[in-house]
Amino acid sequence: MIRECRLLAAASLIVAMVGPASGEPISFDGSWKEQGFLRLWSNQYSFQGQHLEVTSDDTVSLIWRAVEPSLGEASKARWGWKVRNGVVATDLTQKGGDDRNLAIYFIFVDAETANGLTKKSARRLLRNPNTRALVYVWGGQHSPDSFLPSPYHPRLVTRVLRASGSGEYHEDVDLEADFRTAFGEEKNTLVGIGISADSDDTDGLIQASIKNLELVTSE
């Protein structure tokens, strides 16, 4: 019994010393490209290394970057985000009127086609029939942890992390588990990340930020 207790204590010490799996930082730099929606209106983005400032004043757009192949098997993601001013709660399942403060897109394709895809355009990538997208959202009128089908894309599913409102939070998401819940299959290869703010339908103003975005490939 004493020996077992010592082994458990030693194991606990090792876990405490090692700590959680380290993440790979995703820098907010010149590798991100802005893409508009429909009327091609533009948000304002300020890239500050590990920090991104976003202003959306009756506008909508998305910034996008490809993910390095070494991060294609990332199983988790984490980040901090803050909303100082946000839009009103909307129905995210309805096309038009579905504004939200912030959304982070994780784009996946099957391993066989990952290398042959053109990753410079998020719109072109989403048109590929093998593409799946998980979108983590702060906004809307839905309960946190709701999984919602996109009204715009048949292979895009939204998970609501925060309902509409302001504040500051840290998020830690399990890409594998959420992909399984959203699509009923095992996670494919991660090839890109997108971030958007959407205020055009409600004539709103969003002032928000994201910091310390990381991908974790193993625990």
Automatic annotation (TrEMBL):
<feature type="signal peptide">
    <location>
        <begin position="1"/>
        <end position="23"/>
    </location>
</feature>
<dbReference type="InterPro" id="IPR021409">
    <property type="entry name" value="DUF3047"/>
</dbReference>
<keyword id="KW-0732">Signal</keyword>
<protein>
    <recommendedName>
        <fullName>DUF3047 domain-containing protein</fullName>
    </recommendedName>
</protein>
<dbReference type="Pfam" id="PF11249">
    <property type="entry name" value="DUF3047"/>
</dbReference>
